[in-house]
Amino acid sequence: MKTIDLRSDTITLPTDEMIDAIVTAHKDGRLGDDVIGEDEVANDLQKKAAKILGKEAALLVTSGTQGNVISLLSQASRGDEVVVEERSHTFLFEGGSMASLGGIFPKPVKGVRGYIRPETLEAAISPDDAHYPSTAMVVVENTHNYAGGVIVRPEQVKALADTAHSHGLKIHCDGARLFNAAVALGIPASKLVKDVDSVQICLSKGLSAPVGSIIAGTEEFIHEAHRWRKKMGGGMRQAGIVAAPGIIALEKMVDRLEEDHKNAKFLYQELAGVPGLVIEEPDTNILFLGLQNLDIDAKGIAEELGKEKILVYGDYGNRTRLVLNRMVDREDTERVAQVLNSILTSL
Q1: Could you tell me what percent of the chain has a pLDDT over 70?
Q2: What is the CATH number of domain 256-345?
Q3: Could you tell me how far CA 2 lies from the centroid of its own chain?
Q4: Which of 116, 148, 145, 112 is nearest to 290 (CA)?
Q5: If you ran DSSP here, which 8-state letter would residue 112 be given?
Q6: What pTM was estimated for this model as a whole?
Q7: CA distance 226 to 142
Q8: How far apart (Å, rounded) are the C-alpha atoms in residues 137 and 84?
């Protein structure tokens, strides 16, 4: 029986074409020292990513967490505060890196389905008083993981950015799953980040590259980000080995994200009628099952699914997260629906 892994879209494996691209880059002599800007493949990836995102420049980094913290440290100073949504990845799941590495104070606020409303941001900005830290930035997460893969639409991003900029703040987009939002809306990714100062995208989630993220923004921002990447030990030498699959990810793997979205919606439709289950129709590829009305918790669901070789994380309390990804096809999704229906209706 095949193991079906719904823990995250980070479990996606590189395609054969990605591995071939690494070998080709090596055979063609295009690898070089990226720390001094001499890896041709890494340079190509950065130019391509900047163009796709509608930004002046881009930089390859090792991970989404590194990309986010570099973006914050490049635009905020030690002792500043950054407004974050209370369930955001930058606040909950990045090891407190903005504080521990940069001395930046995260200021969590309550969002609506993961979105910080402009009026919420305005209320969170500290007064110009020596008793308070200076508010330097705000972070928007798109899609928002903990809210359930929820899309923040271009007009929402613009409204938040306009408010931020009117108060002299920068705005960073944690776009780990930005292309999921773009595909779901049927718009270019650049439209979603047109109004932000910096953006981070993951190549290694639904896009299936083995490693790597991109940050993008102005030339000035990337110049400073390059310095912070070096300070954080993120300078890679023959980075084309990482960049070659990243190029394939951007060229070949974006449109297929729609398959993951369709499978998530199929799963929703199959489970929506389960008595007591709290479930919302997914925007993209993430589906949360609310278990608060049922006699089982996330750990219990994980254990029961594990018996059927279906993997989910068991540490979300009374919610279970299912992340559809390239390694899970429609037949797999049908089996997951069947097993979950059996477990949940037998309680």
Answers
A1: 100
A2: 3.90.1150.10
A3: 27
A4: 148
A5: B
A6: 0.96
A7: 24
A8: 9
